Amino acid sequence: MNYPQQALTDLRDWQRRMQQKPTLLNRVTRRVQARLNALLPEKVHVAITVAIQKMVQGVLFGSTHTTQKPVVEGTLQEREERVRARIRAYRNTAAVEGGVTGAGGFLLGLADFPLLLGIKLKLLFDIAALYGHDVRQFPERLYLLHIFQLAFSSQHTRRETYRQLVDWPTTQQHVTAESFDWRTFQQEYRDYIDLAKLAQLVPVIGAAVGAVANYRLLEQLGETAIMCYRLRWFAEHPPLPEPQ
Description:
Layout: H1 3-18, H2 24-39, H3 42-60, H4 76-103, H5 106-130, H6 138-151, H7 155-166, H8 168-174, H9 182-198, H10 206-236
C-alpha cells in the first residue's frame, strides 16, 4: 500500500471514531462535569470565557507577521514528514515548559495555561502552512480554531465539530470570531485538560506531571490537525487506485 492509500485508510478509521456516539462513560463524565460547572457562579463563567476568548483571539487573529508562507510544492508524504518533525519539536518544547512550571508549584503551574495555549496555536499555524494553506487568511484561522476544539472536547461536542469541519465551505460562511461559541469552547477545553493538569499544581510531582501532560496534549493536537488537513487534501487530490 502506497503512502496516500495508507493515509486515506488511517483517515477513514479516524473519521469513524469521530462519529461514534458517546459511550456510557462519556455520558457520565459529561454529567459530572456539567454539575461541577453549575457550581460556579455565572460571573465566574463569564470571566473565564472572556479571558480565554481574548487569549485565543490575541494569538490566533492578532498576528499577521509571524506566520509562515504556505508551502506550495510537495507530496503528501513529504509534507507530513515535515509536519511530524514540527510536532516533535513543539511537543518537546511543551514538555520542558510543563516541567519547569510544574516544578514551581501552584503559582507557576497556573502560568502554564497561557504559555501552553500559545505553543498549541503556533503549532497549528505551522502545520497549516506545511499543508499549503495561507493562515494569513481569516477563514484559515477559523479552521484552526475548530481543529483546536475538536482535539480538546468531549465526544458529544467532538461529533458536532467534526461535522462542521467536514462541511467547511458551508461552515465558514456562517461562523465568525464573534459568533463562535466561546462558552462551550472554554468549558470543553478546561474539562478536557483538568484531570491531566491538576496534579501539576502539586509541588515535587508537578514537574513530572507537567512534562508528561504537555507532551501528550501536543501529540493529541498534532494528530488531530493531520487528520483534519487530510480531509481537505484528499478532497482536492483524490488518490489513484493501486495497480492490481
